[in-house]
Amino acid sequence: MIGTRRTLSFPPVLKSSITGTHGYIRTFSTFALALAIGLLVGIERGWQEREGAEGSRTAGIRTYALVGLLGGVWAALTPKFGALPLAVAAAAFAGAFTLFQYREVSAKEQFSVTGTVAGMLVFALGAYAVVGEMEIAGAAGAATVALLAARQICTSSCASSLGRSSVPACFCWQ
Q1: Whole-prediction pTM
Q2: What region, left, alpha or beta, does residue 92 occupy, with left being phi > 0 and alpha being psi -120 to 50 degrees?
Q3: Which of 12, 58, 99, 156 is the most buried (most CB within 10 A)?
């Protein structure tokens, strides 16, 4: 074997995974995006509820990050098992997350569905990041974080200065 030149070769399946359109880099990127969407939403939700006692929130940074990743993992299974397991997982997640959010809202005696909708949206965007278009999933994730953060901006500065008669005027720009 002295004097012979060896080249690195991959088995056909591995080679197509590395060099194909759905290679390891793309797979890693899609899962990273699913995780990042959840992290950003979790950071925002944690910031909104930062005054609460430890353990008083149903979901925070870690939970939303894992929800995004969970959606991505279930979506990654669709080529092998079809869309039904993803639909069942999404329904089971929505039910469980809604139950936990309901218990939190009941304990705090508040009425808000935002956390529940955010959790389901993070699951869906995590799934879409893996099987859909990353750019759209990323943009929708950024828009979600912006909308969630807008509550703080609107309630602290804009809404306090608006009277009942000026609210319709906000929607009649000319």
Answers
A1: 0.70
A2: alpha
A3: 58
